[in-house]
Amino acid sequence: MIPNLLTIAGSDPSGGAGIQADLKTFAARGGYGLAVLAALTAQNTTGVTGIHPIPAEFVAAQIETILADVRVDAVKIGMIGEASVAEAVGRALMPLNGVPVVLDPVMIAKGGAALLMPEAVAALRSALLPRATMLTPNLPEAAALLGEAEARTRAEMESQAARLRALGPEAVLLKGGHLEGDTSPDVIATAAGITWLEGARVPTRNTHGTGCSLSSALAAELARGATPEEAARRAKDWLAGAIAASGDLDVGHGHGPVHHFHALWPALDNDAGSGVR
Q1: What CA–CA distance (Å, rounded) separates 114 from 45?
Q2: pTM here?
């Protein structure tokens, strides 16, 4: 059975992150995508120029209308923007007992723009963390959720991942892409303990939407019954391929998107008269 996968997030009109990246990821990972808009942005690969919040009651109405009609097999939550939206999403998802929820606590865009209001951090922590099957912060997001300095070592990452899990999520995938070095290590904290996932750092600027895409891939894997560790390994491997193939795309002048369909689209031969340059 093809899983139905719901994303609750903000829109990125450039297509590399947010709802657009989530839907591409769901399709690439063999799922049917459903989408609830929690915020609108004006952005491209060089940065965010504007944010338009969607009223919390309308975000909730979108979720409730979907759940009244469609079986949902997993949920991914991304940019929620405001405290009232976090609280509304938490309430609206209460009927989904046993359905995996991946929470990507989107706070800052690649270009540095704030995507989560400071007062919303507490609401996200109280309303959504306890509902999460997997929490997927990067190092700055983990620090903000814990109210402390950003982790700089693997030992600090392990400690923060374990303490974030104590706030309610079943598992925490703490992403180490902000660490210095040639690798991009991630750490998973579960009831069974700590597991490290190693990964080579790909030398590219095309990293727009990597967090959104990873969390959506996790949701697709969890919907099929994968454990958090299995889901993380599969999603990380897929994303590594999407980053490595990002040079096949030519989108914008800043941080370009990853190639979500790298395993599905045939390589374009620009010398074969395709008409695409």
Answers
A1: 16
A2: 0.93
